[in-house]
Each structure stands twice: as C-alpha cells, then as structure tokens.
Amino acid sequence: MSTTSSPPSFVPTTTTLKSLRDSRITSVSLYASRAEIIRVFNFSLATPGHHQLKVVDLPSVLESDTLRVEGHGAATIHDVAVKFATNEILPTSSEKLDELNGQRDEVSDALSRCEQSIATLKQYLGSLTVEHLPVGDLDDVLTRCDATAARLDARKKKLKTELIRIDNEMAEENERIKVPQDDEKLRMTASIGIFAEEAGEVEIVLIYAVPNATWRAFYNIRVDMSTKESLSAVKLIYKAAVTQNTGEPWDNVPLQLETSTPTFGLALPTLHPWNVSVRQPPVWTPSSSFSPDLSGAAPASAIASPTRNDVARGGRGWGGAAPSKKRTMSVAHTNVSSQGNVTASFQVPGLVSIPCDGQAHNFTIVELDLKAAMSWVSIPKVDPKAHLSARVVNASEYTLLSGDASIYVDGSFISRSRVPPVSPHESFDCPLGLDPSVRITYHPILKARKESAGLAFLSNKLVTHTFSQRITVHNTKTVALSRLKVVDQIPNSQDAQIEVKLVNPALTLLDGKSTLGGSGGTSRKPQLLSLGNGVSAQWDGADEANVDPESLGLEGKLNWVCEVPAQQKINLSLEWEVAAPVNTSIVGL
Questions:
Q1: Cα(485)–Cα(136) distance, rounded to whole angstroms?
Q2: CB 582 within 8 A of CB 513
Q3: Residue 280 CA to chain centroid, in angstroms?
Q4: Is 574 exposed, middle or buried (0-12, 13-18, 19+ CB in 10 A)?
Q5: Which of 317, 316, 307 is nearest to 282 (CA)?
Q6: Full-prediction pTM beyond 0.85?
Q7: Sequence-ordered alpha helix ranges (H) in 32-137
Q8: What is the pLDDT of residues 390-443, one digit of tens each?
Q9: Which of 69, 96, 386, 512 is the most exposed place for a label (fewest CB within 10 A)?
Q10: d(CA 25, CA 38)
Q11: Domain 13-87+183-211 adopts which CATH fold?
C-alpha cells in the first residue's frame, strides 16, 4: 500500500470498524512500564475511490504520538487523525421501560385496593355483635367472609409476584440501556483517509503504545546439596509476572518481554568550569561613631582580620565561598546486556491470554540448570551460626534481571532473597539461610596480666594483657565442608600509648609488624597464612575482588578458611596482647 501518490477527488465513503470486534492483536512487546501493540484489520472496500476509515473503541490511554498506520492492498493512506471520543448523551429510558413503568403503576394500584378490601373485611368482622346478627345466620356469614378473605389473599399474593417480575424486568432493561463501564477505557478513535484504486480486500495495521502495562522478573532457585561433587546443582526457574490494565484484553497473543527501559530527554551531562582563587579578607566598613584621621584613611587597628568564626563561615578552604552551580539531574536507569547486545528480549512460548484486570499473571521464561560453589560464613562472636551461601555462575545465554527469589534447599523452602542483575557468564551470590548441621562453639575468653619494668625509670613500666580465644567447629554432615569462613577480630588501638599485638595466627600488617596502629608501608599482595590441616588464616577481606591491600588488618578483623572433614571437629585459636603504661585506664577491654 502506497503512502505518497496524491489521490483524485471522490466523494468519501465512511467505514466504521470496532477495535475489539473487527481486528486481532498479532504482537505485544511488553516493556517495564508500557506495551507496544500491533493490531490488524482485514476488510473489503466495495468501490474504488476515497474512503474514510473510522476505527473506534481503541484504548483511552493510547499515546497518540506513537500511533503508526501501515497497510497492504491496492490503496493509498494519505492522512491519519486521532481523537478522544467525548461521552454521548445517552437515553435514560426506552419504550419497553415506559411500558413496564405503566404496568407497575397498575399492579401497585390493584395491590393497594386488594389490601384495602382485606382491611375492610377485617373491620366488618370486628363490628359484628349478637344484637345485629341472629345466631342462625352466623355460620353463613362466617363462611362467606372466609371465602372472600381467601380470594383476596390469593389475589394479593398474585399481585406481589407480578410486581416482583416487573421490577426484575425493569432492572434488566436499565442495565441494558446503561453504558458499560469498560467503554470508558475504550474512548479513543482513529480516522484514516484511504484512496482505493480498485475494490477489494485491504489490510490495515495499527501500531501504538499504551501505558498501564508492566512486567517484572522473579525466580525459584532450587539447590541440591546431596551431591558429593565440588559444585552443587542449581535449578533456576526464570519467571515473569505480567500485569496490564490498558482497557483492552490480550486474547491469544504472542508476547515478547523486553528488558530495555525507554528514556526521554536524556542527554550527556556537561562539565562546568571549576575555578579556584585566593580567598580575600572581608572589607571592613567603619561605624558612624568612628572618626577617621586627617588623611582619610582608617588606622591599622580598625582593619579587622578574619576571626575563626569568619573563616568557618567562609566555606571552602580554597576558592572562598563562591557559589557552586547546580548539577544537572540525570535519569537513573540500568542497562542489562545479553551476548554483547544492549538489551535482551524474551519470547514467551506459544500464545497467551491476559485479561484487563490489573492482576499479575505468571509465565515461565526458562528453566536453567546451573552450577554453584557452596560456602559457609560465621561470625561466632556475634552469633555462633553458620550462614550458607552459593556462588552461582550464569552459564546460560539469558540475562537475569533484578528480582525476588524463593530459595529451596533439598526440596525445602529456606528463605527469600533477591537476585541482582546478572549478564551471561557472570556470577552472583545467593544466600541460602542457616545450616544447623554446622555447629560452632565460641568458648569463654582467657585473660592474663603481666607487668614489666622499664630500663631506667619507673614511668616506663608497662603492663601487658594477654587474651586467648578458642573456637570449635563441628561438622555433623556426612560430607566434608569445602569452604568454611570463620570471622573474628582483635581490638584496634586508638591511642599511641596502647599497643595491640596479634600473636596467633601470626599475620602481619603492611610494615611487616603484627602491631595495630603502627606506621604503614608498601604491600606486595594480601597474606594467606597456612596453619595446616586444611586451615588458613588471612586478614578479613583479603580474598575479595579489587581490595585495597593497604586497608587490610587496620580494623583488626581476620578470618580462617577451613576444610572440615565429615563428622569431625577442628579448633581455632586466636591470641593477642594489649600493652600500656602502668596505671593506664583502658576503655574497651
């Protein structure tokens, strides 16, 4: 179908198509906060010439500037217009409703007369006395009154039933003539001018974007701990929760999930000039009571130098209090790549149906069989429990988006966690909760005190406090623990008079000493000290990526990396000394 040639003049023929009835959705591309819909109309043009196609009942939230119209057939598209259909003045009554109202009035009047007759009969029976009614006529009067009452009761019941029937029919008729609530969500209309070269079949394709549609990723992660291999099996079930409230249902549509996030008005930020200058002292202005000398110059004592408060109010040390320019606000977004692309797309298998109800509908994207290295971490000084964690390698070609995950270990639900954005062949840490089969005992600390005399003066006399901490790890599993990290700490001196020395394990700081708080030196690489029997010691953080070696040990934190055989125990020892002058009160011990 062409869109360039100028059509000759013809009297236009108007054709009205209803979106939901006369078309089908052939594609839905769902982004984080909007959806792109492709809707196809197939219809016949009875005559050649100018036709005005009116497509009604499009979503009210349709973003008009995103509408594109394409077509196939012997015709030319030459103009497209979109408008929001205003509410029409709709009738509040109908012929049938007027008839039912008349019937209801008649039945209501008949029911009132019947009830009045029953009341009159009761009043008549109540007025009978022996003075006015002979005893011989009593039976005949009562029989006739009873028959009349029965007839009136039957008529009253029939009239009430008829009244209920009429009310029900009126309610149905009111519902029929009432505008359906969903029509408020389908008020957009597209007008398309078409010139047909000949009569025949024509296909019109509408492509448009709508908000109120979103999807998010979530996961089920199932870990198998029964294997004796070095890497455990992990099944990651990648799911999508789709929600849409666009006004139109998506019935039997192909659904494609997009990971990109559209951004609007995002430009490269600008670096403004960064100027520095010498701070000028404030200019002193004399008061009215001050009299200058004959030369007109103020005396030297009157030229005030800036006080400490003046400097404090001056702001920055360099450049004075020059106002800074406001930084341009940027739009936060996350780009996730897949196989080197900027974004990734997921095609949901088959055709799906998603009603316009604002509820989440879940679909499985893929099930991935991955491998993970298990590790255990414990900080027994705070809590003697072992926290299990898995480092999972995304060996698939799927980009993992950030989302909540339900964690199952050996078929049992353990915890909920959150998966960070992970590209293909990257890894991420997945906490698996506590492992009760690893039992750690943090024994009471042992303390000792020793004084040593100085070489010359009594004031040089020192007192040394020695501390010993023992930690026992019991692996009750039937398999060995390949990597258990136990974290502890020693005090960190904040005073030059107090010296803290690590004795066991014999880790050293950057300057080659085991004393905390000394002067720094140069580092070669983080130290890993082997203690035998599958146990090594290091400063905490030494095995982390991009760690600054100069910061290791400055806070007194260290850890042991252990391999614990099945059904076995190991003991870890921590010993340190705190030395200070005699009679020094040490806070924190």
A1: 114
A2: no
A3: 52
A4: buried
A5: 307
A6: no
A7: 95-127
A8: 999 999 988 899 999 999 988 889 889 999 999 999 999 999 889 999 999 999
A9: 512
A10: 6
A11: Jelly Rolls (2.60.120)
Q: Residue 90's pLDDT is what?
A: 56
Q: Residue 523 pLDDT more than 60?
A: no
Residue pair 305/279 in contact by the 8 Å Cβ criterion: no
Cβ(393)–Cβ(357) below 8 Å: no
The DSSP string of 347-377 is EPSS-EEE-SSS--EEEEEEEEEEEEEEEEE
Q: Are 424 and 336 in contact (CB under 8 A)?
A: no
Share of the chain above pLDDT 70, in %: 80
Residue 518 Cα distances to 165, 547, 554, angstroms: 97, 21, 10
Beta carbons of 360 and 256 less than 8 angstroms apart: no
d(CA 423, CA 443): 44
- Residue 511: HSE in the Cβ half-sphere, 13 Å Cα cutoff: 10
Cα distances (angstroms) measured from residue 461 to each of 202, 210, 448, 452, 464: 104, 81, 17, 6, 10
Closest CA to 464 of 356, 349, 319, 575: 575
pLDDT tens digits, one per residue of 459-504: 568 889 999 999 999 999 888 888 899 999 999 888 888 899 999 9
Query: Per-residue pLDDT tens for 40-77?
Result: 999 988 888 898 999 999 999 999 999 999 988 888 88
Q: Taking a C-beta distance cutoff of 8 angstroms, is the pair 142, 121 a contact?
A: no
pLDDT at 317 over 50: no
Number of Cβ atoms within 10 Å of the Cβ of 324: 11
CA distance 36 to 52: 25
Contact 386, 375 (CB under 8 A): no
Lookup: tokens for 453: 């005399």
- CA-wise closest residue to 361 among 210, 185, 216, 209: 216
pLDDT score of 459: 57
Query: 540 with 561: CB under 8 angstroms?
Result: no
417 strand-pairing partners:
405
Q: What does the alpha-carbon distance between residue 122 and residue 312 come to, in Å, rounded to a whole number?
A: 102
Q: Report the alpha-carbon distance of residue 195 to residue 49 in Å, rounded.
A: 5
Percentage above 90 pLDDT, the chain: 44
Is residue 239 within 8 A of residue 368, CB to CB? The reply is no
pLDDT digits (tens, 9 = 90+) for 196-247: 888 889 999 999 999 999 999 999 999 988 776 778 889 999 999 999 999 9
pLDDT at 444 over 70: yes
Give the pairing type, strands 438-442 and 412-419: unpaired
Element (H, E) at 202: strand 200-210
Q: Would you mind telling me the total number of residues written for the chain in this entry? A: 589
Among residues 383, 393, 443, the alpha carbon closest in space to that of 574 is found at 443
Q: Say yes or no to pLDDT of 313 above 60.
A: no
Give the integer Cα–Cα distance in Å for 402 and 393: 15
- Residue 265 confidence (pLDDT): 62
Largest distance between two CA atoms of the chain = 148
**Domain limits, the chain:** 13-87+183-211, 100-128+137-178, 215-261+337-436, 439-581
